[in-house]
């Protein structure tokens, strides 16, 4: 069956449908990772997005029930050059088409993804609709232009509704869940942490009541400006606990210090983004998935230093409080997918949590 990706600027990309037949609107974004598609499909930060993979064959090592970042895939649709029908890997439990059908997500294959990505790079990420029929093209375009898929805050949908505890014998971590990736929890567990996962809008009083040793601010989907009240809460917590934020958590920490965020033209999504640590001048290859960034000019420089910078476009990739054990990064040191080069940041957080003054 023919399938189409119609962009809000009227451009049409044609291919063959696979997976579930399910017309959906989403923000069309691209990821340049060569592997890790299953982790990407299940990362809550992709909520509301139609995903284009630049790697030309997707599905070649199959999918399984383990390598997930949440319980189910969250993408609205998938656009690939070629969807592999003969996966081969010792871990593979199903093929891509089956997985997409089971989860009622539509894919399009046979698309000139190179042309599509060049278009998005030149003209910015676009809203799009993935469909099997263009008969009512005018209506589809109108629906697209009216949809709020981009500016929406998805965190209320994906954050845990009730607090829960993941047992451990080590330090007590309060984790604010904005759409947390499971690998962040797995990494904290590997340090023995006892983790209390909290709804995104937990009050300052309730967070302090836990008497945690450290506060973790998770990744999450959507526009960070939708969570301004959370940033205000974080501002009150900065003096109380060691803090580590990742991605959305980083943006909210910046906002707690007065920073504004802005939308990047086409985002950073991939597993090999170069980031320079401005403290030791080392360059790390990082895993990234974000559409917004902190506006450096608006960050309160009396309180925070910029510690990391993206070498592709110079945007802020990390900040650190000048006097307190509080820091954050825009990229994903927990990887999944991507390199684990930046896992040392978890060591730093855990050292802060244990009160190692050297670490501050
Ligand atoms: N991975 C994330 O936490 C993404 C943060 C935010 N939703 C952005 O797109 O910039």
Automatic annotation (TrEMBL):
The species this protein was found in: Alkaliphilus peptidifermentans DSM 18978
Xref: NCBIfam families: CPSaseIIsmall, PRK12838.1
Cited PANTHER family: CARBAMOYL-PHOSPHATE SYNTHASE SMALL CHAIN, MULTIFUNCTIONAL TRYPTOPHAN BIOSYNTHESIS PROTEIN-RELATED
Assembly: Composed of two chains; the small (or glutamine) chain promotes the hydrolysis of glutamine to ammonia, which is used by the large (or ammonia) chain to synthesize carbamoyl phosphate. Tetramer of heterodimers (alpha,beta)4.
Enzyme class: ligase
SUPFAM superfamilies in the cross-refs: Carbamoyl phosphate synthetase, small subunit N-terminal domain (SSF52021), Class I glutamine amidotransferase-like (SSF52317)
A GO BP entry: 'de novo' pyrimidine nucleobase biosynthetic process
Residues at the catalytic site: 247 (nucleophile), 332, 334
Metabolic or biological pathway: Amino-acid biosynthesis; L-arginine biosynthesis; carbamoyl phosphate from bicarbonate: step 1/1; Pyrimidine metabolism; UMP biosynthesis via de novo pathway; (S)-dihydroorotate from bicarbonate: step 1/3
CPSase: annotated span: 1-171
InterPro entries: Anth_synth/Amidotransfase (IPR050472), CarbamoylP_synth_ssu (IPR006274), CarbamoylP_synth_ssu_N (IPR002474), CarbP_synth_ssu_N_sf (IPR036480), Class_I_gatase-like (IPR029062), CPSase_GATase1 (IPR035686), GATASE (IPR017926)
UniProt KW keywords: Amino-acid biosynthesis, Arginine biosynthesis, ATP-binding, Glutamine amidotransferase, Ligase, Nucleotide-binding, Pyrimidine biosynthesis
Family membership noted in the UniProt record: Belongs to the CarA family.
Function recorded in the entry: Small subunit of the glutamine-dependent carbamoyl phosphate synthetase (CPSase). CPSase catalyzes the formation of carbamoyl phosphate from the ammonia moiety of glutamine, carbonate, and phosphate donated by ATP, constituting the first step of 2 biosynthetic pathways, one leading to arginine and/or urea and the other to pyrimidine nucleotides. The small subunit (glutamine amidotransferase) binds and cleaves glutamine to supply the large subunit with the substrate ammonia.
Domain of life of the native organism: Bacteria
UniProt name for this protein: Carbamoyl phosphate synthase small chain
Pfam family, one: GATase
Residue numbers binding L-glutamine: 45, 220, 222, 248, 251, 289, 291-292
């Amino acid at each position: 069956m023919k399938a189409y990706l119609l962009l809000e600027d009227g451009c049409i990309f044609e291919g063959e449908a696979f997976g579930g037949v399910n017309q959906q609107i989403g923000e069309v974004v691209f990821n340049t990772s060569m592997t890790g598609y299953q982790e990407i499909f299940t990362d809550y930060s992709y909520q509301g997005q139609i995903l284009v993979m630049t790697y030309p064959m997707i599905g070649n090592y199959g999918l399984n029930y383990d390598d997930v970042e949440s319980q189910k895939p969250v993408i609205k649709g998938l656009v690939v050059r070629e969807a592999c029908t003969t996966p081969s890997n010792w871990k593979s439990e199903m093929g891509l088409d089956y997985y997409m059908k089971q989860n009622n997500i539509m894919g399009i294959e046979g698309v000139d993804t190179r042309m599509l990505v060049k278009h998005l790079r030149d003209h910015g990420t676009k809203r799009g609709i993935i469909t099997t029929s263009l008969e009512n093209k005018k209506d589809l375009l109108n629906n697209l232009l009216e949809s709020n898929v981009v500016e929406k805050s998805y965190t209320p949908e994906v954050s845990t509704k009730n607090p829960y505890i993941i047992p451990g014998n080590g330090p007590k971590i309060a984790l604010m869940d904005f759409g947390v990736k499971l690998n962040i929890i797995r990494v904290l567990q590997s340090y023995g942490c006892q983790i209390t996962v909290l709804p995104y809008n937990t009050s300052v009083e309730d967070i302090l009541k836990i008497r945690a040793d450290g506060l973790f601010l998770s990744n999450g989907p959507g526009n960070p400006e939708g969570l301004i009240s959370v940033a205000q809460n974080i501002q009150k917590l900065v003096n109380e606990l060691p803090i580590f934020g990742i991605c959305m958590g980083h943006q909210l920490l910046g906002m707690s210090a007065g920073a504004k965020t802005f939308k990047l033209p086409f985002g950073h999504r991939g597993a090999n983004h170069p980031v320079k640590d401005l403290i030791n001048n080392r360059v790390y290859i990082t895993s990234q998935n974000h559409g917004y960034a902190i506006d450096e000019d608006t960050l309160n420089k009396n309180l925070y230093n910029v510690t990391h910078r993206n070498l592709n476009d110079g945007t802020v990739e990390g900040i650190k409080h000048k006097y307190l054990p509080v820091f954050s990064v825009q990229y994903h040191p927990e990887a999944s997918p991507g390199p684990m080069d930046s896992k040392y940041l978890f060591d730093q957080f855990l050292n802060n949590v244990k009160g190692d003054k050297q670490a501050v």
